[in-house]
Design goal:
Length: 98
Amino acid sequence: MQAGDIVPLQIIASALVFGVAHALWGLIKGSVHVALTTAVATGIIGAALAVVYAVGDRSLAPCIAAHFLIDAVVQPGLVLSAVSDEWDRADAVGKNAV
């Protein structure tokens, strides 16, 4: 196995770890539905950041900058929805869809 052959596995592993780590927010709130949707969404972001890392000569700087921008733009809305009843409404919609 050559060094380049393992990169896809590294990207998948990074996506899974990134998604699971961020899914804890939904579990803290007590919502499995929110945890699962968070895991999928942030898993995709984790995969994208892993691709940037692999393509960017294995430099963390672009990944850190991208994560900062995501946090600066998206994070305020997530925090507001977490402390309001938005997650509860999203969880109710998810339970009704099942």
